[in-house]
Structures are given as structure tokens and as C-alpha cells.
Amino acid sequence: MINNNKKYVPVLVVDFGSQTTQLILRRIREIGIYCEVISYQQIMDKIKELKPKAIIFSGGPSSAFHRFSPKVDKEVFDIKIPILGICYGMQIICEQLNGKVNKTHKREFGKAYIRALKKSTLFKDNIKLNSKTQVWMSHGDEVVKVPTGFEIIARSDNNIAAISNKKKKIYGLQFHPEVIHTLKGKQLIRNFVLHIAKIKQEWKINDFLEEQVSLIKNKVGKNKVICGLSGGVDSSVVAALINKAIGNQLTCIFVDHGLLRKYEEKEVIYNFKKYTNAKIIYVNAKNLFMQKLKGIKDPERKRKVIGREFIKIFEIEAKKIKDAKFLAQGTLYPDVIESKIIQGSKLKVIKSHHNVGGLPKRLNLELIEPLRELFKDEVRSLGKELNLPDNIIQRHPFPGPGLAIRIPGEITANKIRILQNADYIYINELKKYKLYNKIWQAFCVLLPIRSVGVMGDSRSYELTLSIRAITSKDGMTAEVFYFKEDFIQNLAGKIIGQVKGINRVLYDITSKPPATIEWE
Ligand code: XMP
Question: What is the CATH number of domain 205-393?
């Protein structure tokens, strides 16, 4: 939020490497309060810069009693800004303020129950004294002594579950209120930000829109901006937003690798012209990509080849735009956080698509990433504010390498055609039966398996198609969307009847984990 040209962030979430830091942010923004995540190393500088009214310490994998585990500058405990420590966050409060944390022999993972021992504003209208409530725990250490001035306000069967220093407005929770399995967690966070920190619910996507328009105008001045367009929600919203700020100083480059859905390139260009007055350069590179992908079966090599060629073409086109100084990208907040967490962690890279920063530095353009602070649903709300139509805003995510990673094995022009036709029928059926918007992502995968069938009086020996539909909040985990039997039967019949080359349809019922969303 911008007040008098200075950025103001009401809540800062200090990240100690928890898997659920993103959820803390989501919960706070859902309340209508803006917040950002910062690293623990920057805490005092960020407080001076962003003037927060509340601070939340996230959980984390370290042990607070280790000499070199992440800690905060102790000054933060004396500046009278309310603090809520979650899990590791509570443990460092105790450790740094002369309480004590030990390894516990009674580790708690998953569901647990706590009992409130004292009244607290944190529990207001939510958790009654002495009542038991279900929470979600994930810890191997425990607080064994609370610091002076603190009291224990809740316990689980095994450990201290919540602490409070009312005078200093410093609170700690051993469990994770941000996780939905903590049944009253959302209200706990609400109580902290609304009733303890007394922050107003002022965050609206329209404020964000106006702020961004003025920031982009100031930053860009009279210069030109280039933006890669894919037709997906993120790049469409970026293009519309930048266009609103600087009009036709924006040029979008749309590289068509031929791995898009049926009619998609026409739709993208049509929408672009309808909803912006920026310039567009359309590059038909279908043949080139087909040549480069010939004979390649390995998914990671497909991604590398597509990424490399895309960048080459983009670079050639970008260099033709004289005086371009900026490159706009639709990087979202989860990408930013995720790439930070991945740095230096032991997590293995499953797929190579998490590409913050994107195009090569040699383009010599400065990056503009106006969606960097937003989650997908917020990007969709922003698209609405920009008057983009539902068919852009509600579009399912589509991977950069497109249909290439939905054709396991070698890609041929014929396979692309078959997949495009099947996908077209599938998506239209979803729209017809009003299922499309209930699903996060739905697509077909053309498997390199032929099977025998009988069509009419003839024997067929054709390819197999797998149908996938999932629900998700952010693509990190996914649940299967189960269709009614008649829908799926009717769909399979339609596809086999109308798409030459397929004689068998399978329905994928695997969630993520253990599978990933895409097959490659
Ligand atoms: P997975 O398959 O990793 O997918 O569960 C999670 C989300 O990411 C998309 N995805 C990609 N997006 N380039 C992209 O831009 C890629 O290489 C890529 N691979 C997967 C996938 O569609 C889902 O939304």
C-alpha cells in the first residue's frame, strides 16, 4: 500500500523456512489486510522501511537452541510492535528472551488437541476457557520454560501450546493456525491482527491496481516496455495492467511454438486487440519448434529445447524494438517464495519449470513484475478490475512447453493434431456442463500406447488418451475432480467418435502427491 508515496505494509511475515509461510500470507490477505514476507536477516531494515503494525514469525525446520540457527535482531522485542510467533517462531521468542527450548520426546505431527488455560484476546469469541480444540502440529522441539513476563495460555496433551505477554503484545503458538486442520486458526489470526494489532481491513485489489498504475508510470516514463504474451491469465493481466499505465509504449511478443490448444493463437490475438491498445508482434515458429523437437523423448530435454528456442526467438524480436528499456513478466508470489525456499534447501528439483527471472540478462532490459506480490486468485480479481472477460480470467493454467509435455515420448505433428482435437472436445464439454470453473486444471494426455479396438465391423489399432481434472489452490498439491459417470462416458464416446487416431480413453484418478499434475 502506498501512503504519501511511501510503501506501507501493515503485516510483515518473517520467514524461517516453513512449508506453510505462504498460507500465513493468504490467511491475512483473506481478512483484507496486506502483508509481505521478509527474511529474518532483514528484519530491522524492513521494519524501518515498511512501518508494519504487526509482525508474524513463521515456523521453520531449525532448532532454536542451536547456536547458529536463524534468530532475529533482539531489538524487535522492544519496539512495541505486536508479534505472533508460530512454532519455530514461538521457540525463538522463548530462546531469545531467556526462556528455554529443548528437543522433545513427545513430538507432535498432524492433528492434536489443545486446552485453553487462560483467557486471551487471541482466543476472543473463538476458543473458550478449558475447552478442547483441534489444531495442527509439526514439531520436534518444545518450549520448557517461558520467558519472564510471559504466561502459558494453552497446553496440548504433551507440550506448551500457546504463550502470551499481554503487556508487550507478544504471543506464541506451538501449532500452525494458518493450516485448515487447525479448526479455529483463521479466527486466531484475525484476533491477532484486528484486535491485538488493531489493523484496519483496508486491502482491496482496486487499491493495488491504482498503486501499480502509478508505480509503472513513474518507473517507465517515456520508455518502451516489452512483454511476452502467452494468452494465459498472468501474462494477459500483466499486459492489460501495463497498457492501462503506459498505453502503446507497450509491445507484446507472442511466440507461437505450435504446441498451443486448438484455435488458441487466434483467440489470444483477438482478445489482445479487443482489450488493449498496445502493439503485438506475432511470431509463427511452429515449424522451427517441430524440427528442434524431432526425436526427443525425455521430458526435461523437451523443456530445455523449448525454453532455449523460445528465448532465442524472443531475443531477436525484442532487439528490433528500439528504445525498449523494460521487460514485463507475470511472475506470481508463489514463484518468488518458492524459489527463495528452494535456494540452499535439500529439496530436489522435480521439474525444471520454476523459472523466476526468466529471460537472459543479455537482453539488457530491466524487469517489471507487477504481480510479484499476488496469488493466483488475486491476479484473477485484478483481471476483473481491468475489465478482462471471464474466458481470460478463469482460464486454467497452461504450461509454457504446452502440449509437448502432454505427449509422452516423441512429438509428431499428427499427435499434436489428435491431442488438440480431443482437448477441444473435452474443454467444450466442461463449459457446456458448467464444470470448467469448478476445476483448477483439466486436460488430456496422449499416451504412446496403441491398443486393439473394434469400430463398426473393423479392427482398430489406435492411441490411448488419458483425461485429467484436478482441483487445487496453487498447483502445489491437487485433488482429483470426480466426474459423474454419464458425463465421462458421454465424453469418452464423443472423443473416440470424433477424433481419428484414438480408440480408448482412460480417466486419471491420481492426486498430487504422489503424482504431479502434468504427466511429464
Ligand atoms: P506439476 O506437473 O509440476 O505442475 O504438478 C504444477 C503446475 O505447473 C504447471 N507446469 C508448468 N508450467 N512450465 C510451466 O510454465 C512447465 O514446464 C510446467 N510443468 C508443469 C502445470 O500445468 C501445473 O499447473
Answer: 3.40.50.620
Q: Which CATH class is domain 412-508?
A: alpha beta
* Phi and psi at residue 156, to the nearest 5°: -95, -175
In whole angstroms, give the CA distance from residue 47 to residue 76: 9
Give 361 Cα–ligand 1 centroid separation in angstroms.
24
23 contacts 185 by C-beta, under 8 angstroms = no
Provide CB contacts within 8 A for 78, sequence distance 6+.
Answer: none
pLDDT in tens, 297-310: 999 999 999 999 99
SS (H, E, C) 274-286: HHCCCEEEEEECH
Res 502: pLDDT: 98
What pTM value is reported for the model?
0.77
Report CA(470)–ligand 1 centroid distance (Å): 13
Residue 112: which of 153, 151, 159 has the closest Cα? 159
Question: Does residue 267 carry a catalytic annotation?
Answer: no
Angle between helices 233-246 and 376-385 (to 10 degrees): 40
Whether 87 sits among the annotated catalytic residues: the reply is: yes
- Residue found under cell 483477438: 270
Fold of the CATH domain 11-196? Rossmann fold (3.40.50)
